[in-house]
Sequence to fold (327 residues):
Amino acid sequence: MALVLAKEDLGGYLSRLAREYVVYAPVKRGDIVTFDIWRDGDEAVLDYETTNSAVKKAFFPAEETLLEFKGGAVSEPEHMGKSIVVFGIHPYDVQALKILDHAFGKPVKDSYYSRRRRGSFIVAVEHGEIPNAFYSELDLDFESGYDIILLDEGDHYLLDVKTKRGHKLVKNGNVRSRSGHVRKPKIPKSGKKKLNVKRTSAFLDGGPDDELWENLAKECFACGICSYVCPVCHCFDVEDRVGLSGEEGERVRCWDSCMLADFALVAGGVNFRDKRHMRIHNWYHHKFSRAVKERGMPDCVGCGRCITYCPAKIKIHDIIRRCEEKG
Fold:
């Protein structure tokens, strides 16, 4: 038997889910598609090419209050309670969540991330060609990490349920059964050779004193947009915001980027990466060398957002390949 969701019933299906879960889905916000909390009236767009934000914000918000204090009392904000459903995510972005699970799970578990991730559901969707994407040049597993994957059959989706937990999401009046079988998801491949991560890492380990980084620093704005749109980047800052009375305030965690000029600024006014070319090298080195040593794979899934949204139009994929050639 096959499970079927008609495209005309997608809104009704999500509405039912939203009664029980917090649903993040690719939705229209003006002229763009972004991952956001789905609410009645929103248009979910499952045939999107890319989104301007990654789904990491469902589990690692751009800004969150860690604790509040007033007088001598300290308290944590209440958790939202409902489990999260990530709906309509591409398989390569699912692999990004697996990387974040590792990054926030070891050596010390991040309780704020883990309490959102725990009990969450992941519903993937197959997709067509993605501008600037190079996921097929990396060693990624496209067949795990999700509970359900949606297979586009024209006027409806076939639902391939991969986990026991996934069956909870198909007990929904909008999902029908019919005779037949599901097929494998269609994942477009570029046909280009796999990246030699070992060679790439070897060059990056040589440090920032190479003309590649000096020249790139003349093009790059060091704005950090590559970090913010990346589904894997997870640098953050923590600051205490104290009211004028000095008696109350909050501790806040917010996204940060190692591309920014003051990222490596420490006490005493010392900045151990004060030059732009050093920060650019560090970004690549972390993703394609340090992460490989720590987790066995790059901190990159080849989604191409860093290229699509770079205001300087830097082809980051090409930079990675040049590192490989120099390695």
Remarks:
- The chain has a mean pLDDT of 94.
- Residues 2-178 form one domain.
- Residues 46 and 88 are 6 Å apart (CA to CA).
- The longest helix spans residues 276-295.
